[in-house]
Amino acid sequence: MKPFALFAALFSACALFAAPPPSAGDLPKRLLEKNPEFVPFSADPEPYAGKLPPEPSGCADFEIELPKSSGSAVAAADFGFLPDNPDCAAALNRALAHCRKIGASRLELAPGTYRCFVSDGVEMDSLRDLLVDGKGATLVFRRTDGKPNFSIKNCLRVKIRDLKIDWDWETDPLGAFVRVVGKHADKNADSYIDVEFVGFARYPLYGKPMPVKVMTLMDENCEGISNERGSAYFGTGDGHYGTKSEWLSPNRARIYPGVAPVGLPRPEDYPSEYSKKKNFWVSGRALVGRTYRIMHQYYGKNAFEISDSRHLTFENIDVYSCRGMGFLVKGGTSHWQALNVSFVPRGGRPCSTTADVVHCTSNGGFAKLVGLRATLNQDDIFNFHDKAAFGKFDSPDAFKFLNMGGARYIDAAPGDEVEIFNADYTPANFRAKILSVDGNAARLDSPFGGGADGKGYILQKASHRTRNILIKDCVFKNHAGRGIMQSSDATIENCRFENGISIPLRFQRAFSIRNWAEGYGCRNVVVRGCEFSDAKINSGLYGVYHEIFAGSRRTDGAGGFDKSATASDILIEKCRFKNMLAMSLYSNFAKNVTFRDNKIEVSDSPAAKSYAGCALFENSENVAFVNNAVCARNPEAIGAFICDTQNAVVAGNSAKKAD
Fold first, then answer.
1. Which of 166, 295, 475, 587 has the fewest CB atoms nearer than 10 Å to its CB?
2. Are 325 and 361 in contact (CB under 8 A)?
3. What is the pTM assigned to this prediction?
4. What CATH class has 73-170+299-384?
5. CA-to-CA separations, 305 to 27, 169, 262, 384, in angstroms, rounded
6. CA atoms within 13 A on the CB side of 125
7. First and final C-alpha spacing in the chain
8. Residue 16: which pLDDT band, with cuts at 50, 70 and 90?
């Protein structure tokens, strides 16, 4: 084991166990083979007041400029924005074009419900100093094209407020609650699951091809997602139909998990979605009599898609549902805020967003989420990152993209400044500009001297850096995905993460050779005063289940990490964790991580891992777990595991028996 400092004189009665403690029972074999050190906590330790890793500052406050009120007001109704018009998106586009032409400062909607069923969506392009006042109007969207509900680009100082957004569930539902009424599992023939649509005598899609992209077990009252069986995925892209299904009656269908639909578009990029093994396994695990959520849609459309804009405000907006993501923010966008925005379904519907709530990629950052609420989303609650791509050099100035999605994945374009990394993400110390892009080949303005490495290289845009993120007073409840920070200078404060089935927070650089790569790494992050309750973690990383992760994640399972710039300078303090089932903190290939002054209540559920409430430091440097208070049924099993880590401080932590 590599050397590390424990500052043993300050540990009170702490000692290192020679044999694995009871909490090691659920650790993965690969970790047990390394014989990690274990530092147990005591009942009444002396508080630690010694040296800690450098303390990060997080995100400094910044200003979002509001529209400058200098022009006239425009009424959307004058352009056909009326309840009896099925194409109110086109009416709004006419009104917005008029606002742009005359330099209006306010566009006023009116209370009521307005259908947006025909046109491509609302397009807000090149607007300056405009307030869109929804006045409580509800916009209901439905269409087949791939454009978002609101496309916002090249805008400056625009505010949208007091608006409600929904999807047309009566005609085109995004998903449904279904009850499993039968199943057939056969290794030698197609297996299937029979379902009944809850609350429907005749389902709106009856008689039509029905997309089935995800199938997830719900808890007993359908308020949250269960972790008993996990989710079955059949492709997430837009425009395909997932797995095969057929109608049995107006409110019953037969689903063939992992069987390609005949004569319908299917996810060619993910051939693993279809197999005999998956068909038999998913069908056999289905629980007859239990309620599941099936999703007809996943990625695509989006409520707000923002690019190349600055100083945007979204305030008092309720998104009852949307197809795709809530916010997709990209390009040169910077300085935007969502204030009191909610993504909460109504009327007993199964989802709010069919994908991420907030997805912010390769842009200028400076984002505020204040008072945001989200529940029953389908994917991540937020993900801030910068995209990268894998490839090789055909010649010193010609980079060939080999990752899925190719040059299109990072929107490579002439003029982009790029940075080259080795395959393990260590810097190759080379920057250049793209001169041209031809298919999946990019010509650079200077030659790369690193040679034709057989392992290839990672190309990252240096033009945009997503950083400066403030997330405050938000509530994420019954969420399917994670909160992911793969950018720098962030503060997450006074937020609640409740009853999710995935890891609440990840601070990471995540990448794979084939599929996708995200992040310049994560640095300078503060998490303070948050509450994490009832996290039903249904999967881990490297065999370890945990609530907070800091480090590097290779999604293709390969090794070869560099911790110098993956996750560093991270502080988690004064938080409360309730009914914890997993590790409180897992640090792997991270540096300068501090977890202090937190309160942890370990669950007594049989689902709790043996190491629930503990911490794990692996392949890390300058880390600290100090002055935390843990209540557990077996306090003698609580402590910190340390493996291949340098300079770890574990002190002042108490572990007491739960009442």
1. 475
2. no
3. 0.94
4. mainly beta
5. 42, 21, 33, 15
6. 6
7. 38
8. very low
